[in-house]
């Protein structure tokens, strides 16, 4: 019992000893590359190999890809980032690394596209009255710009 307490204490001490400026991972199974992309991968059960799940623009997309893969690998008992979004009704026939990678990257890409679209829409400036363009009358002859006829 005492050794268990000591090992747990060491783990929490390790977490507290993060380097300054080093952020804690926002979600399980993902990490950020130096250039800002978020990547996801998962270890195959009973193997040392990992399944590469892709790189994404947002941490949420990478985490959703990870959740999909972990759910197919470990079932409903898996520890997920977003348990409310996993399709528990999905029928799992093929649990090969390739099929899991395909399903996870589909989910991640879909979420990444949605996140990117939402970011673009929110980044657009509010239109002002000076931005309103008048629709030209296409039946009218154009008028000279400098006042000469």
Would you mind describing this structure in some detail?
- Belongs to the AP2/ERF transcription factor family. ERF subfamily.
- Probably acts as a transcriptional activator. Binds to the GCC-box pathogenesis-related promoter element. May be involved in the regulation of gene expression by stress factors and by components of stress signal transduction pathways.
- Keywords: DNA-binding, Ethylene signaling pathway, Nucleus, Plant defense, Transcription, Transcription regulation.
- This protein is α+β, with helices and mostly antiparallel strands and 149 residues long.
- The chain has a domain at 30-123: GCC-box Binding Domain.
- Helices cover 39% and strands 11% of the residues.
- It has helices spanning 2-16, 59-74, 97-123, and strands at 30-32, 38-43, 50-56.
- The protein has a three-stranded antiparallel β-sheet with strand order 1-2-3.
- Helix 2 runs antiparallel to helix 3.
- The longest helix has 27 residues, at 97-123.
- It is elongated.
- It starts with a helix and ends in a 26-residue tail after the last helix.
- The model is unreliable at 2-12 (pLDDT under 50).
Topology:
Blueprint: H1 2-16, E1 30-32, E2 38-43, E3 50-56, H2 59-74, H3 97-123
Antiparallel strand pairs: 1-2, 2-3
